[in-house]
Write a structure and sequence with these properties.
515 residues, mainly beta, 5-stranded antiparallel beta sheet
């Protein structure tokens, strides 16, 4: 009888694990590098890592080349352009080519350069000047510059801050380049809101070269001239078209305020979606949707949808602790957007994650002050909106990831889209699953842990058409012998792979093919 039971459970286990893609193919262990900033995937099985050297008073930037998870070489990036010492701002891939972005600041003048590198991480061709501008006299802060690549990798924008010192408004400059590294449009623009009360929350570059920014304008903090991040006054969409026109659109309507939003696009439209609340809300009451026509340069009025009551009823409505794991008076808290998927029928699917940090200051009996930062990456929400802006379905994936003074290094998630499903990976607690790896459905799950016997990598799969959700334990610690860093891991759609980064005493990288 026991033998028959064993055969039954083995068959059930094989059937269950047969429903998931192949396990992660882990490469060999490599030298541990806690200062790794990014994985830059190039070709199938080939990627670079961007990191800084350890144990030096002046850490040097380095690029390492990996093949099938094994480090082939590591090379220092020389911060020199035309024999001048410059500052490395970023390393990134554009059109499957490796680039470095450098800044040269001499007095009030700033010049931005881009340098291409070959597969051996040697400079390839001459450096390209992408911007030159003047900052206020006496400005001593770092150069603030960002890069953004369009979805199909045919345009790149370099966006930089020209700070205001005496004037109330900052200025921004931008340069949009095509695959041949030819500038197709450049210029400067001004956001007409006080710089100490506004922030650029979202940037998006379309495959047609339209550039969008999402700006939040905040109330002034009590007893301060700076912004209060808990009080949003208005949210603004800024559009820069290929014809160099700049237009601004307010997203807020009536007594509603937009709190978080994200921008994405297809060939004909840019889509703006996010969360909203009331004027006095402490959290979000629902989601909104608006479509921007790239042909007519017209923004539709946003549609505001409330969270389904059954989702809110899962939480405890009595508690009033802003840092706990629930809603407050029918509102969900602090969601950051992680993935937006546009489907051929015009519908949109969105993945967001509850994220917040809080700080505790304590003083001991000797008068010594200590600051403790708590990082929280909690449950996910996934929702689908039709082309008309109606809510198709709304799902919540409970998870709890709490850590202290570590910047949430092993928290958050990574996701990709394949065969009509949104697949999500995150670190979890093994007690949230039964013996064959199925999720137990606990309303408030056990928190993610970095203890060997309690750690696991979880996988949730959401069908983009129906919202049907399956969640399983994908891998325990014994199968990895390290903890996965999802923030560092990356998705390479061109090769249909996820590159997972994991660390314990040494680093390792693994590949999962999703098609």
């Amino acid at each position: 009888m026991r033998f028959l039971q064993l055969i039954f459970f083995l068959l059930l286990s094989n059937f269950f694990w047969g429903q998931v893609p192949p396990q992660i193919d882990w490469g060999p262990e490599n030298l541990a590098r806690p200062n790794t900033i990014a994985i830059l995937p190039k070709d199938n099985g080939i990627f670079f890592t961007f990191h800084y050297g350890n144990g030096s008073l002046m850490p040097s930037a380095k690029i390492s080349r990996f093949e099938n998870g094994k480090e082939i070489f590591s090379k220092r990036i020389e911060p020199r352009i035309d024999q001048k010492m410059v500052t490395l701002e970023d390393m990134f891939l554009f059109s499957n080519r490796l680039f470095g972005l450098f800044s040269d600041k001499i007095g009030p003048s700033v010049t931005l350069y881009m340098q291409e590198y070959d597969d051996d991480v040697d400079p390839f061709g001459p450096p390209l000047v992408v911007a030159s501008y003047v900052i206020p006299k006496g400005w001593s802060r770092n150069v603030l510059v960002t890069t953004k690549v369009s979805p199909e990798n045919n345009f790149l924008v370099v966006d930089y801050l020209i700070p205001a010192k005496k004037e109330p408004f900052d200025r921004f400059g931008y340069n949009i380049l095509n695959k041949q590294m030819v500038s197709v449009r450049e210029g400067e623009y001004e956001i007409p809101y006080e710089s100490n009360l506004s922030a650029v929350e979202a940037r998006h570059l379309t495959d047609k070269g339209d550039y969008f920014l999402g700006v939040s304008v905040f109330s002034k903090a009590y007893y301060s001239v700076w912004k209060d991040f808990g009080q949003v006054d208005k949210s603004v969409l800024i559009h820069m078209s290929p014809g160099d026109s700049l237009k601004m659109y307010e997203l807020d309507l009536e007594q509603r305020k937009v709190y978080n939003f994200v921008i994405t696009s297809n060939d004909s439209n840019a889509i703006v979606t996010g969360t909203w609340g009331g004027e006095d809300s402490r959290g979000a009451k629902g989601v909104f949707y608006s479509s921007f026509s790239l042909d007519s340069n017209r923004l539709e009025l946003p549609k505001f949808l409330e969270f389904p009551a059954e989702i809110l009823d899962q939480e405890n409505p009595q508690t009033d602790d802003i840092y706990s794991y629930q809603n407050i008076n029918g509102e969900l808290l602090n969601y950051a957007f992680r993935n937006v998927i546009l489907l051929p029928d015009g519908s949109i699917n969105v993945l967001a994650e509850q994220y917040y940090i809080y700080e505790v200051n304590t003083t001991d009996s000797r008068g010594m002050n200590q600051v403790t930062n708590y990082y929280n990456y909690n449950d996910c929400i996934v929702y689908s909106l039709s082309h008309a802006g109606e809510l198709n379905w709304f799902r919540k994936i409970p998870k709890k990831q709490e850590s202290v003074n570590d910047f949430g290094q092993f928290s958050s998630l990574i996701s990709y889209v394949s065969k009509g499903n949104l697949v999500i990976f995150f670190n979890d607690h093994i007690q949230n699953y039964d013996q064959i790896g199925e999720y137990l459905g606990t309303r408030i799950p056990f928190s993610n842990t970095l203890r060997y016997k309690e750690y696991c990598l979880a996988k949730a799969r959401v069908n983009l058409e129906s919202g049907e959700t399956q969640r399983v334990m994908f891998s325990p610690y014994d199968a990895i012998e390290a903890f996965v860093c999802l923030k560092l891991s990356c998705v390479n759609y061109s090769t249909h792979q996820v590159i997972f980064a994991a660390s314990n005493k040494r680093d390792k990288y693994g590949f999962l093919t999703f098609e």
